[in-house]
Amino acid sequence: MFTALIAALALSQAATPAPTAEAQVASVLDRLNQASSTADEAAYFSLFAPDARFVGTDANEHWTMAQFRAFAEPWFKHDSAWSFPATSRTITIAPIDCRCIAWFEEKLASPSYGETRGSGVMRLTDDGWKIEQYVLSLAVPNEKADAVVALIKGEAVPAH
């Protein structure tokens, strides 16, 4: 009886397929939001490659990990640093033999910014999938783009 139970357990574990590369990448992105939502700085930054880049919404936000971490450190002293949960996501695994490069784009919901976008590149390392580049951008509706551009340039907002 005991041997049959062990054999059945081994068979059930062997029959469980490994998560796909797409599922693994999605898990990293979900953990990224979870870590920032709970202000878990160590968990958040562990998801990035050491030489990763973070590109933020401001034109001056093009950071190495050390620069981004220095910027973000005060935010992680709160109960939540920030929260950008994905509402939809597309993940593409590069069609190369190693299946070790992925890129993604996702629609994000932000309490402070509304609909935003996240996109980037990941690489499969010995420690799992790591973010090499993350780009956070504001989603500006086309019909409001002229007004946003005018604000950025310091010009009067055009009347419609």
TrEMBL record:
Residues 25-141 form the SnoaL-like domain. The lineage of its organism: Bacteria, Pseudomonadati, Pseudomonadota, Alphaproteobacteria, Caulobacterales. Pfam families: SnoaL_3 (PF13474). Coiled coil: none annotated. It comes from Brevundimonas fontaquae. This is Nuclear transport factor 2 family protein.
